[in-house]
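Standup, Tuesday
Yesterday: got the pipeline producing structure tokens again.
Today: sanity-check two examples.
Blockers: none.

Example 1:
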Amino acid sequence: VQLQASGGGLVQPGGSLRLSCAASGSDFSINAMRWYRQAPGKQREFVASITSGGSITYADSVKGRFTISRDNAKPTVYLQMNSLKPEETAVYYCNAGGLWRAKPYNNWGQGTLVTVSS
């Protein structure tokens, strides 16, 4: 199962970006899709997740500003990020877990860089 993230770029503080992550492959199902981020010199941290049933979890730091959604038919997960802060400059990674040919997998996309700066 391959994950392709896109949508990163340069945005001013207070601005918005929408990230996308498309899953591809064959013979797979997805239980949950997640977004993580890793700022320079810091550990990767959880941002948001959404299950196939629609259950959503956010990191406290992004609640009220970020919205995760998914299109199960594609399948693609989105992260709408509003009111971005400079400290949220990071590489954003998508992650998906589920079954591939009846075996569990947990895969990562290549990451997309988000730079919040004036």
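Example 2:
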Amino acid sequence: QVQLVESGGRLVQAGDSLRLTCAASGRTAGRYVMAWFRQAPGKEREFVAHILMNGLRTSYADSVKGRFTISSDNAKSTVYLQMNGLKPEDTDVYYCAAALAGQAPAYWGQGTQVTVSS
């Protein structure tokens, strides 16, 4: 079992920066690929970014490339999502997820709300 707890979401203005944090716990947390997804009401959950827990490989959705950066601190079993140049369309609930390589996420956090005002 892996437990994921997100934090850091809040109301910001367009152009602001925000850092989300995902704290992972559980005996096998270090084996997983960690990812961020986001979802707006009535829409499907969409991929934002992922990172191998060794930090050597990352991937981003086109919509956030160049603005968002995913990183990890293995010693703290924590994953971060640094979001710069936020836009109103980035308003969503952001979820942290853990997956074994090549598989769909097996664990999800409870989500943290990010709201970007124009």
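Quick observation on example 2: The chain has a mean pLDDT of 92. The chain is about 0% helix and 50% strand.
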